[in-house]
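--- STAGE predict ---
source: upstream dedup step, 1 unique chain passed
mode: sequence only
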Amino acid sequence: MPTSLPLRLLQLLIGLFLYGMGAAVMIRAAIGVAPWDVLPQGIALQTPLSFGVATNVIGALVLLLWWPIRQKPGLGTVLNVLLIGPSAQFGLWLLPEVHGLVWQVPMFVLGLLLVAVATGLYIGARFGPGPRDGLMTGLHACTGWPIWLVRSLIEGTVLVIGWYLGGNVGLGTLAFALLIGPLCGYTLPLFGVRKPEPAPALR
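--- STAGE serialize ---
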């Protein structure tokens, strides 16, 4: 786990770049994308905005929602808004869309693994959560609702809106929802987020 500021910053930047690339890989696999990627994909289909720009705009709008729930962004939060969109757009420019499940499934799995590794990297750098995660934890703190319920409501809302706009909802979307948690449970400790030590027994 890096402790020096330059190494942590490098880890953050690599994580954000890989996150955007992972999203692009899953989009090119064309069997469904992550719930938060369905919305910018739908917006890109219905407006002149590219997927990358739509991702940036959504991130900025979500960040604005932090103010009424008294969340404080960190450097990682701001860079998340600024960098994931361009990284994803670069990946879409670089990668062709594949056809046939024999190519689509491995490509989707690669994208899913990239996002899991990227999440461990950028959160492990300890520069603050992404705007979406901060919205989730902030609403949890304000409402007292269980974190799973808050996350489900947020992701369900953006998923439905994105699907209505034409975003790609498929088996990959379900696979992402089911697998990203366990995968991040492995990558977060690997890249710096340790489980809390148990409290010492009282004597």
